Target: maltose alpha-D-glucosyltransferase
Amino acid sequence: MSFTAPIPIIGASHVPGLRLDPDWHRKSVFYEVMVRSFVDSNGDGFGDFQGLTSRLDYLQWLGIDGIWVPPFFQSPLKDGGYDVSDYQAVLPEYGTIDDFKHFVSEAHARNMRVMIDLPINHTSDQHPWFLASREDPEGPYGDFYVWRDTDEGYPNVRIIFVDTETSNWAFDSVRRQFYWHRFFSHQPDLNFENPAVHDAVYDIVRFWYDLGVDGVRLDAIPYLYESEEGNGESEPATHQFVRDLRRMVDDEYPGRVLIAEANQWPAETAEYFGTAEEPECHMAFDFPTMPRIFYSLRAQNASELQRVLAEQVEVPPGAAWGVFLRNHDELTLEMVSEEYRQAMYGWYAYDPRMRSNVGIRRRLASLLDNSRAELELANALLLSLPGSPFLYYGDEIGMGDNIWLDDRDASRTPMQWSPDRNAGFSTADPGKLFLPPVQSLVYHYTSVNVEAQMAQASSLLNWMRSVLHVRRQHPVFGLGTITVLETDNESVLAFVRSYGGDGTYHGPKEEHVLCVFSFSHNPVHVTIDAPDWSGAALHDLFGGGQFPTIADDGRFSLTFGTQSFYWLHIGSQA
Ligand code: NOJ
Model:
């Protein structure tokens, strides 16, 4: 099967019942794909919705259940589209609203869900609301943004984009006042104190749910409100806004989900789940676990990961973490201590060009120096964690990055489909592409591409596909709890995923899987303590091979090659 030539689209049948499963978001593997980077169907140098739609078969083949599409709206594209100038229009380079609707129905026809991304904290300074606000302070949009006569308000609020911004206030020469912005100065923050802003945001959310999307990522959600005393992150009024929004979604769009992008510590992020009585988001990205995976790989030490996983905050029923290794942003190091941050800069960002804000702007394969063992280990761990995994486009083939491009564009280059011109991404004149494809020695598109990896049974792509298909057979990975086990080797992480079965899933009623990972760069032997599982039989989830039974004292031993893992089915105890 080849996915490098345009794939004809056959019949746009909507699958009735796609949303009937209230747990769909907990059982899904998501794939983040930036529209402009995936496939250019009309040769203008930009990826577009028709191109993306033509490769849905590829994503289905890979084993993807849901697609997360970062902002594709009208935008001056000064922040990759997170600077929106019209929330209800598709950027012309990406296509039309009809192209988007077609994309959604074709995804649904393949049993895949679509999640879009709404940056509601701020707009572009080119948005008509901002243009009206700066021109006419007394007009209907005068109060849509946060204006002040001085740049002295909200003194406790930190700057997020430390590489480019020196203040969260910027002076507007038209209104002759300062406006508030948490990100780039061309992204003024909306004023959530103004109820008309709430109405405008609700209209946008309804607009996209009405077009059939299954989920909305709430970009930068902690920053909606600020106060003089607080630090402008997760203020009580922000949570109230999210609770109200959730109520609307449950009433008007049952089965659709909200996912929080809150780069915070676990307890604070978990607040975005709300409670069973007063729910907020269905999902929240897990920011603290991700950097600890990278730390463990280089430190050959699992203890920090073990601590974070053991402390994982309980999530309310029906809610789920979104776990990830990489995304379209820098690998953020905000959620680690200064000591860990410096160690990670030393290991992973030894060239200053690799750094961005408080993080590292590189792709997964180049972070891991293209080590197949590490790529497998990191991905297997990701797919074992509690929550729904989010993969980043191109990481399934080990695409590299280009640190000579600006900011986070380093890892937003065209998808590498084939060794042909422009990596098979576009037929345009190469100079016309929105970004050049990667042509570095190790990751050049002539060697790292989908076509070549499909032709090789042992490729990373085929490995990813087979692991995703094994994972899909075991709902415990999506629905189960986690219990971290003690081991006698600091390089080894062991935990049990357990699913008791609540009768709603038409799969095994009960399942327990032992997941063990060795971060050591040398072979090791480990003894693991599993007191609740004495006498249980262990079988490899991939090939069914039998492993030694857990002893009566709950202990058992395993031997590992370098940087490897096991997924072991825990069978009935004798
Ligand atoms: C979070 C997005 O992930 C990032 O790409 C963007 O720059 C900021 N929000 C600001 O919009």
Remarks:
- The longest strand covers residues 564-573.
- Confidence is low (pLDDT under 50) at residues 6-14.
- The CA atoms of residues 296 and 302 lie 5 Å apart.
- Residues 79-80, 82, 119, 183, 219-220, 328-329 surround 1-deoxynojirimycin (CB under 6 Å).
